[in-house]
Amino acid sequence: MINKEKIDFWWEQCKEFMGALFDMVDGVDKWKEIWYRSKERFFPYVNEDGRIEIKVTPKAVDYTPDDLFPRYENLIDLGNKLIFEANKFSPEVCSPHRVVDFLVKATSKFTVEERMQNRILTTNTTIDGKKVPLGTKLSKYVGMMLSDNAKYMLGLKWSPENEAKLKEFTDILWSMFVNALKSSGNVGISINPMDYLLVSFHTTGWRSCHNIIDGEYRTGGISYMLDKVSLVGYAYDKKDTIRYGSFVSEEKFPVKQWRAMVFIDEDVETGVISRQYPGVKILFQNTTETLIENLMRKMTGRQDKIYDVGGKAYSRASYNYTDYVTSVLSFDDMNKTVTIGSYSIPCVRCGDMREQQGSYTLECDSCRDEEYYCHRCGERCSDEYGFDGFYYCEDCFDEVVVTCDKCGDYCYRNRAVYVDDDWFCEDCANEYFVCCDYCGEYVYADDACRVEDTGEYFCQSCADRRLHQCDYCGCYFSRRLTEVNDEYFCEDCLSERFECCDECGAYVDDVAEVNGCYYCDDCLDELFEKCPHCGEYIDKGEVCECTPVEEETEVLV
Predict the structure, then answer these.
(1) Of 102 and 374, which is predicted with more confidence?
(2) What are the boundaries of each domain within the chain?
(3) Contact (CB, 8 A) for 1 and 48
(4) pLDDT at residue 184 above 70?
(5) Distance of CA 91 to the CA centre of its chain
(6) Structure letter (DSSP) for residue 251
(7) I need a surface site. Which of 28, 122, 252, 527 has the fewest CB within 10 A?
(8) Where are the beta strands (DSSP E) in 4-96?
(9) How far is CA 310 from the centre of its chain?
(10) Is residue 497 exposed (0-12), middle (13-18) or buried (19+ Cβ within 10 Å)?
(11) Which of 132-136, 417-421, 492-496, 540-544 has the lowest mean pLDDT?
């Protein structure tokens, strides 16, 4: 249970921290008033720091193989972010889809424990016919497999330099995967006002658009702070002093390994976990779900089963970015809506209420002198570079926005598709391209190869290496085709083009019918002979029924 002195101390820290960002912070006192009214319902259930925490240590038994698939998929987002932030990696060489697909195929046969420890412990495996010794690092095995597959993965873009970049990129993603499995520490949920200011600050190196310093939705943390349902979910293994500009915190705060916003509305008896940053961590997610369930039971007085019903949480304001939802927990096996975010937020400088006046700033329009500020970096800019209702400086605009080479419209770089040195918006990409289901590369729809038995699409390169093509109709199949005279045929073409011998199973141009069965020429000659009288086929050594008695007797004698 928190007390007034502790609350006053937190808000003095908030005021000092914001004072390092702005020369006037009259609005912080207004934030305090609204926060107190909104979060008071949680006061009886949190500790003296405004938090509920539990220590966790991951074990392989905490995961099932199914738990690992979201972690692999999350590598795609992390890979795209890495490409965006690092100049050394390019999407045409280091395709996150292609690399993640490779990692799944290369490592899925290993146990959870082996992947968690990054070492081959029990699984027997070989490379090029040579056994890989137990104890080998799994990262080394991944590197050896990549060396065998690099030329195929890169295709026409292969070169020693590109292969080295691909290997480095793959090593980084695999390291992220292993670290995500091994992450441990303290997991908690918080209403401490400083934790809202730090939702994307004071981390282990990751950030999000809610970063209070330069986030595209930097007002998001304040929006969560002032509503009635939002708590900060987090995980850490150490605390440290906050230092920014002139501000040095008087206490240490969690250095966040992981964060996910938590929304608890006892009125609709529902708890929500939003998107996880910097990526999915099942142990932290499961522990946070336990904390939510315990708190929901205390706040509602209900002790019955809580369901994960899926669904969405909706924000009524644009100040906070509405991410996708990880889980929705409810006493009833049905989805309910939780409204998140604050519609009106006091300006940090003057304290006047702002209503939907830009998520990229904490100031009202009056305090900003109605100037334009870059949505990404926050620096003053002109209105020359505007997109999607936001304005950017020239440098940030070039980093964030690209021009579609098909329709000429602007689109966000992280949502655009890069094909053959050109950028395409999502609409044009969906209209003109398909994504290869094997390597993840986009190809023109007219050039893509449709897999007839699965409905998938492959690029020509992957189709040539991974699929089987019917020599008669030209269609591609994932399954093996039937070979006839050094050519391969699908089932439909096979039945249309050939006949099947009932004796040997060979497919031939023509067969002969004998007693309701069909035989190729070779089997026919081996098993039967023609009666010289009626011309019918009879078993070799047998006498046809039509043979004259005298001749039959003669034959018998």
Answers:
(1) 102
(2) 4-55+185-340, 60-182, 509-556
(3) yes
(4) no
(5) 16
(6) E
(7) 122
(8) 51-56
(9) 17
(10) middle
(11) 540-544
Retrieve residue 284's tokens: 């932290």
Q: How far apart are CA 110 and CA 107, in angstroms?
A: 6
% residues pLDDT > 90 (the chain): 33
**pLDDT tens for each residue of 500-546:** 888 887 888 888 888 888 888 888 888 888 887 787 887 777 777 77
Instruction: Take residue 500 and report the two structure tokens written for it.
Output: 């099947």
| Other beta carbons within 10 Å of 121 | 13
Among 49, 371, 403, 91, CA closest to 234: 49
Residues 6+ positions from 548 with CB-CB distance below 8 Å? 533
How far apart are the C-alpha atoms of 61 and 175, rounded to whole Å? Answer: 20
Average pLDDT over residues 418-439: 85
How big is the CA angle at 59 (ends 58 and 62), to the nearest 5 degrees? 90
> Rounded mean pLDDT of the chain?
86
* Pairing state between β 512-514 and 457-458: unpaired
CA end-to-end distance (rounded Å), the chain? 116
In this structure, the strands spanning 185-190 and 51-56 are antiparallel
- The tens digit of pLDDT for each residue in 347-392 reads 999 999 987 666 778 888 777 755 677 877 878 787 788 887 678 8
pLDDT at 557: 44
- E strand or H helix that includes residue 273: strand 270-277
Sign of CA pseudo-dihedral 13, 17, 18, 23: positive
Sorting pLDDT into bands at 50, 70 and 90, what band is 436? confident
Q: Cα(132)–Cα(126) distance, rounded to whole angstroms? A: 5
Nearest to 251 by CA among 185, 183, 198: 198
Of 103, 101, 109, the residue nearest 126 (C-alpha): 109
pLDDT digits (tens, 9 = 90+) for 187-203: 999 999 999 999 999 99
Distance CA 358, CA 372 (A): 11
- The DSSP string of 359-408 is TT-SS-TTTTTT-EE-TTT--EE-SSSEETTEE--HHHHHHHEEE-TTT-
Closest CA to 487 of 509, 454, 515: 509
Q: Which residues contact 384 (CB under 8 A, 6 or more apart)?
A: 394
What is the number of H-type helices and E-type strands within the chain?
Answer: 16, 35
Query: What single DSSP character describes residue 447?
Result: G
The Cα 232–Cα 263 span in angstroms is: 9
Residue that has been written with the tokens 């690209």 in this structure? 402
35-45: per-residue pLDDT in tens? 999 999 999 99
Rounded to an integer, the average pLDDT of 261-290 is: 89
> Which residues touch 102 (CB under 8 Å, ≥6 apart)?
145, 146, 149, 153, 170
Contact indicator for 99, 168 with CB cutoff of 8 Å = no
Q: Name beta bridge partners: 273.
A: 262, 327
